[in-house]
Write a structure and sequence with these properties.
Length: 180
């Protein structure tokens, strides 16, 4: 690796590490804001949109996995970039919802309550962790560092898939308690 490539790699690592830290901190701060912003009634539909986004992302991740196993690199790349784009849209919708609406409490009782909270907590913790892996995986793929991409994806793919699927499950479990 020459000096220019090393400098680019160092800059990319700083950006990735910065984003992987800034995103969860920003979301945590946002969740702590008690005074919500009124952007209108439409924001109450964002959890439902996010449920759809997570569902589509899960499907795209599985398709991306299928395509790469079939050695269809072009379809894999398109599918994974679509999943990444949807993840970005999800984040914007999630931030907008929590900026404008109170969190919805889970109303389930009995054995389902600890199941819900286990899924929710594992989803949240892993959603923080996966940001770093996904950003690295995308960077390595787009910069042609396929070996590093493959090494990163060993961790990124299962975590991202778990986060996407549990996002759908948690959404379906809390959906009856949303106002809209």
């Amino acid at each position: 690796m020459d000096v220019v490539e090393a400098a680019q790699e160092q800059k990319a690592n700083r950006v990735i590490n910065g984003l992987a830290l800034a995103i969860p901190i920003a979301v945590a701060v946002l969740l702590g804001i008690r005074r919500k912003v009124d952007l209108g009634e439409w924001t109450t539909y964002l959890p439902h949109i996010n449920g759809v986004i997570n569902s589509i992302t899960s499907i795209l991740l599985l398709l991306g996995f299928y395509f790469i196993k079939q050695k269809n690199v072009v379809a894999h790349k398109r599918t994974m970039l679509a999943a990444f784009a949807l993840g970005s849209v999800f984040l914007v919708c999630y931030v907008l919802y929590h900026l404008t609406n109170e969190s919805t409490p889970f109303g389930g009782e009995g054995w389902i309550r600890p199941v819900y909270y286990f899924l929710l907590i594992s989803h949240i913790v892993l959603s923080v962790v996966v940001v770093w892996f996904v950003l690295r995986a995308v960077y390595f793929a787009l910069s042609g560092q396929i070996l590093k991409h493959k090494q990163t994806v060993k961790y990124a793919f299962p975590i991202w898939l778990y986060v996407s699927i549990t996002g759908v499950i948690v959404y379906l479990m809390i959906k009856p308690y949303y106002i809209h």
